[in-house]
């Protein structure tokens, strides 16, 4: 996470007038902030996954190359679903690059070509950062809005499965 990144001030603080169909549940500042944390990590994971996808070289390149596209797809779907949930709750998702760079919990990715086994460590740590964020905010989200918490459940399951698939490449059986 870069400490020197200046995050631009949010624009559009004045929201559109609510209509009859939109008079339902409204997210609190805490719920909005927690969903925003998840959103930026999903966006960052999509970027990290594509960056690794383009730059990996080495053993089992093709398998990892294809698996990274699965991770990117999950991250893209997660970002969209969380952002749309935020809008449904009258919150404004912020996916601007400066905001994502300044607030993601994902570790820095190496620049240039990366050996597949090194990329496995980076992408696994990135997935674990996203699921860690979701688990960190889960209980507060669930307390206020179980529907939003349910969205997190499915993505935690999918990403933890991907971390297992990807990290299995570099694991060895334990001695018996």
From TrEMBL:
The keyword DNA-binding applies. Residues 33-168 form the Ferritin/DPS domain. This is Dps family DNA-binding stress response protein. One of its GO terms (molecular function) is DNA binding. Belongs to the Dps family. Keywords: DNA-binding. It comes from Cutibacterium avidum ATCC 25577. InterPro entries: DPS_DNA-bd, DPS_DNA-bd_CS, Ferritin-like, Ferritin-like_SF, Ferritin_DPS_dom.
């Amino acid at each position: 996470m870069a400490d020197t990144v200046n995050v631009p001030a949010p624009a559009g603080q004045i929201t559109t007038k609510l209509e009859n169909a939109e008079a339902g549940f409204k997210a609190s500042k805490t719920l909005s902030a927690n969903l925003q944390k998840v959103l930026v990590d999903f966006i960052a994971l999509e970027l990290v996954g594509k960056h690794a996808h383009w730059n990996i070289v080495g053993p089992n390149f093709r398998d990892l190359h294809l698996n990274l596209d699965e991770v990117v797809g999950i991250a893209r779907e997660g970002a969209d679903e969380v952002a749309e949930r935020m809008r449904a709750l009258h919150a404004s998702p912020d996916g601007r690059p400066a905001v994502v760079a300044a607030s993601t919990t994902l570790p820095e990715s190496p620049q240039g070509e990366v050996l597949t086994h090194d990329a496995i460590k980076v992408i696994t740590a990135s997935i674990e950062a996203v699921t860690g964020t979701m688990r960190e905010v889960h209980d507060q989200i669930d307390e206020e809005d179980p529907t939003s918490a349910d969205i997190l459940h499915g993505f935690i399951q999918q990403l933890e499965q991907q971390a297992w698939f990807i990290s299995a490449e570099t694991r060895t059986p334990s001695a018996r």
